[in-house]
Structures are given as C-alpha cells and as structure tokens.
Amino acid sequence: MAEKLHFSLVSPERELFSGEVDQVDAQGTEGGFGVLAGHAPFMTALKAGQVVVHNDGQLTVFEVEGGFADVTPDGLTILAEHAVAARS
C-alpha cells in the first residue's frame, strides 16, 4: 500500500478538510505544484485557484482565494484566505 500524505485545509471560518490522501495539487504564486507523501519541506504563497485532492481514485476540489501552503515532514497544511468546496 502506498504511503499517504496528511493534508489539512483551513480557512478563517473553519477547517474544510483534514485527512490522509494520496496527492494534493495547488496553484502557488510561482506556479502549480503537487505534493505526495515524503515531499521535501517548503512554504509558498497561493494564488486564487483550485486545490485538488486525490485519494483512492477520487477527486475532491476546493476553490481558494489566496493563502499559504506549508509542507513539513508531518504533511501539507493550507491556510487559505477564503476557501469553499467546488460545485460539481
């Protein structure tokens, strides 16, 4: 079984997501990026766009309006200025 990444998405209003996932893709101010378990630590500002969570073949999409992404040995945390679940 592949190693999972702990991911948390937090906005000022509430925590929108917290759990173990396969991959997270987001839009940084320097370009798009994807994070898997074991990724090297980094921090970046986010621009408005989608955060796509990949888990067991399913996609969960959130719309964010800026914020920060922080990758540590413990996982990925996104602190969004504003975030909502994308409508299907």
Explain what the structure shows.
This protein has 88 residues and is mainly beta. It starts with a strand and ends with a strand. β3 and β4 (31-36) form a beta hairpin. The strands form two sheets. Strands 2-1-9-8-5 form a five-stranded mixed β-sheet, with no helix packed on it. It has a five-stranded antiparallel β-sheet with strand order 4-3-6-7-10, with no helix packed on it. It is 0% helix and 67% strand. The mean pLDDT is 95.
What is this structure, in a nutshell?
The chain is mostly beta strands.
Alpha-carbon distance between the termini?
Answer: 30 Å
Shape: globular
Low-pLDDT sequence parts: none
User: What is the count of helical runs?
Assistant: 0
Number of DSSP-assigned strands: 10
Beta-strand share of residues? over 45%
Strand order of the largest sheet: 2-1-9-8-5
State the order of secondary-structure elements, H for helix, E for strand. Answer: EEEEEEEEEE
Derived structural class: mainly beta
Helix content: under 10%
User: Radius of gyration, Cα only, in angstroms?
Assistant: 12 Å
